[in-house]
Amino acid sequence: MACLTSSSWPKLRKLLRARTASWRCPISRANARRSTTRGRGGLILGLTLRHGRAHLYRALLESIGYGVRHILESLGEAGGAPKRLVAVGGGTKGGLWAQIVSDVTGLPQEIPAVTIGACYGDALLAAQGIGLVPAGTSWATAAEVVRPSDSTRGLYDELYSIYRSLYPATVEQAHALSRIQSNVAD
Q: What is the CATH number of the domain that holds 94?
């Protein structure tokens, strides 16, 4: 498989956007979250011969959206529903990933003017801690807001339901594969 280089990304984004009419991609559980349960590996379901690299890439982006939605639902069930979503990091570049996450979750995301993420937040917490700025100061000024598309909501709800059912339906197989993989030398 060829490596993606910095010059590959624009071509890949263009290909992904061009396939919006037929992007019914496989569902990926490649972002299986860590837990106390060992052996949770990734899974791609629904892959056919008509799927190519762009479909697989999009499935991975969508799987992260499903994972974000699952986490947000879990937070809500625990009484900690977020008041706002702010996206930072490399995924905010180009717009596709942020749009997918908003479409899957059904929630808007703010993209701040500075998207470098954790280190920027660390600097803010340090500045608050030593009294340079008052507590409650926010440096995440929104440069844009990515809103979910109503046209994809029903499909993503259906795909998310399938996504949520995958781990319980494949837990025994995932553990069996994990046992085999742990016994095979690299």
A: 3.30.420.40
Which residue shows structure tokens 């016994």?
183
59 within a domain of the structure (yes/no): yes
pLDDT tens, position by position, 28-65: 665 545 454 555 667 888 888 888 888 888 888 898 89
Structural domain that includes position 117? 25-30+46-175
CA–CA gap between residue 108 and residue 149 (Å, rounded): 10
Measure the CA–CA gap between 153 and 79, rounded to whole angstroms.
24
pLDDT tens digits, one per residue of 3-18: 555 566 676 666 666 5
Distance (Å, whole) CA 26 – CA 96: 17
Give the span between the Cα atoms of 26 and 124, in whole angstroms.
40
Confidence (pLDDT) at 21? 36
Cα distances from 19 to residues 13, 15, 24, 52, 154, in angstroms, run 10, 6, 9, 11, 19
Classify 94 in phi/psi space as left (phi over 0), alpha (psi -120 to 50) or beta. left
pTM of the model: 0.76
Q: Which residue has the higher pLDDT, 97 or 1?
A: 97
